[in-house]
């Protein structure tokens, strides 16, 4: 199954169902089931900024040191990948598919025009995370 390694706190924001768009500098043609792997590094500074801090606290993560690292923590479905074409003062970002991104979703990603919005659906946190070494790009997990 395909896996995407994501730094913390963004991996947990996805696993918790708070983030449904992952932004990347590259496009993928892949669509289908996707596992979310929390990389070994944590952007500690981002964990202290709102709204990330309060959203994590709402789910019981009052300290970034409690965030899972080095493990697969969720599964979801990658349903689309759209180029970000513009920023708009009224709605945040707009993609080539005319998707408007605002609110926390906008604040949880890098929606610089030219990047790509990976649209995730059916996000489920794993009851038992799977220890795994991450990799760059999409990678294959074999049980």
Structural class: alpha+beta
Name the beta content range.
over 45%
Look at the structure and give the mean pLDDT: 95
- What's the architecture of the domain at 2-82 and 117-134, going by CATH? Roll
Regions with little confidence, pLDDT below 50 for 5+ residues: none
- What does the radius of gyration come to? 15 Å
Describe the SSE topology:
Blueprint: E1 2-8, H1 10-15, E2 21-24, E3 32-42, H2 44-47, H3 52-58, E4 71-88, E5 92-95, E6 100-101, H4 103-107, E7 116-131, E8 138-140
Parallel strand pairs: 1-3
Antiparallel strand pairs: 1-8, 2-7, 3-4, 4-5, 4-7, 5-6
How would you portray this structure in words?
The structure is a single chain. The protein is an alpha+beta fold. The chain has a domain at 2-82 and 117-134: Archaeosine Trna-guanine Transglycosylase, Chain: A, domain 4. 15% of the residues lie in helices and 45% in strands. The chain contains four helices and eight strands; from the N terminus they run βαββααβββαββ. It has helices at residues 10-15, 44-47, 52-58, 103-107; strands at 2-8, 21-24, 32-42, 71-88, 92-95, 100-101, 116-131, 138-140. Strands 1, 2, 3, 4, 5, 6, 7 and 8 form an eight-stranded mixed beta sheet that branches. It is globular and about 40 Å long. The model has no long low-confidence stretch (mean pLDDT 95).
